[in-house]
Amino acid sequence: MKKIYLVRHAQSEFNEKGIFQGRLDSDLTPLGFVQARMVAKFLQDKEIERVITSPQRRAYKTALTITDVLGLELEVDERIREMSFGVLEGRNFWDLFSQEREMMMGWLKDPVKNPLPTQEPMEEFEKRILSFLEDLKTCDEKNIAVVGHGGTLHGMVCLSLGLGLENLWSVHMDNTGVSLLEYDGNGFTLAYLNKLCHLL
Amino acid sequence: MKKIYLVRHAQSEFNEKGIFQGRLDSDLTPLGFVQARMVAKFLQDKEIERVITSPQRRAYKTALTITDVLGLELEVDERIREMSFGVLEGRNFWDLFSQEREMMMGWLKDPVKNPLPTQEPMEEFEKRILSFLEDLKTCDEKNIAVVGHGGTLHGMVCLSLGLGLENLWSVHMDNTGVSLLEYDGNGFTLAYLNKLCHLL
């Protein structure tokens, strides 16, 4: 049984300020560095052989803490960079919700039917996530940690379970929430989603 | 925001023996009683107003521990009784897997396309779960705990997210694993799946 631990990045400065991030880049907050350390400790007894991260700073810094604790090399993969949310990036998320409620609700309900203006096309997003999943299926390592973003990790959950990206925002992941995908050579199972015990 | 805490029943005697349970009935094990107590404590600060359980003994006993700790009445609902797995109930689960591997794998991969012989028809199962979900949406209480089974709670997750029952076994819940569905009046979000922090 192959185990793929999906780790959403720790709290970033833009998370703290409520800024809609996407392709933008910000560093971890002091709390974020503590969260990263705690999730690294959680992964310590999981016999992780490989850690793959998105190149963006909030994910990279989280993953670097993990590889430091586990004594592993860090691998960067462009395919799990966050989805581009287009022209809305940089806006305050809660302002956006109050000012563009209908657009934002429609997008959360079904981002395939109601994409945001100038966002990354969903077919391209799907293509890069499926290609990444395919490589995970066929690689030799059995226990792998993937550090990424809400969009890309939700995408991995939806597409590995054979669901469409319509449901991309029907799952939720907090900062350093861990989700476990198991692959038995036949199909994927979601063993848990958004585990946060390490922050207790 | 309405919060629906889905709690899979604690360990039963048939769980311990690896017996494929479905409509069969068995009591909790000593470990099961401890797990029930621990999940009850976890729910204590969640301002739960209503606890609903399947009538089957393993769920009912788990729920009774929860209502004892929370000081609430216990409500029984026939619609969240476990799916009937038909003639295979009572067989050892792992024997079944080694003897009927292809049938069992096909079923786990897609129980709509590959139902078990004489199992409850999937349309009837879907109908009772959807009817139960509809009542939850429209009731006055905001924080509700539902104690049920793998089949019925997975069904609630799949159907509330708008997924088909093809994916019924693509999610996983351990004994007393807690999953949180949030309902904002518009749609459901799965905030976490199979949380087990209370057992640490």
In a nutshell, what does this entry contain?
Chain A has seven helices and six strands; from the N terminus they run βααβαβαααβαββ. With 200 residues, chain A is of the alpha/beta class.
Structural write-up:
Two copies of one chain form a homodimer. Chain A contains seven helices and six strands, in the order E-H-H-E-H-E-H-H-H-E-H-E-E. With 200 residues, chain A is α/β, with parallel strands linked by helices. Chain A has a single domain (2-199), classed as Phosphoglycerate mutase-like (Rossmann fold), CATH 3.40.50. In chain A, helix 2 (30-43) crosses helix 3 and helix 6 (122-138) crosses helix 7 (150-160). The longest helix of chain A has 17 residues, at 122-138. Chain A is globular. Chain A binds chain B through residues 105, 108-109, 161-163, 166-167, 169-172, 177, 179, 182, 186-197, 200, and chain B through 105, 108-109, 161-163, 166-167, 169-172, 177, 179, 182, 186-197, 200.
Write the layout of secondary structure elements.
Two copies of one chain form a homodimer.
Chain A: E1 2-8, H1 13-17, H2 30-43, E2 50-53, H3 57-70, E3 74-76, H4 93-99, H5 101-109, H6 122-138, E4 143-148, H7 150-160, E5 178-183, E6 188-195
Parallel strand pairs in A: 1-4, 2-3, 2-4
Antiparallel strand pairs in A: 1-5, 5-6
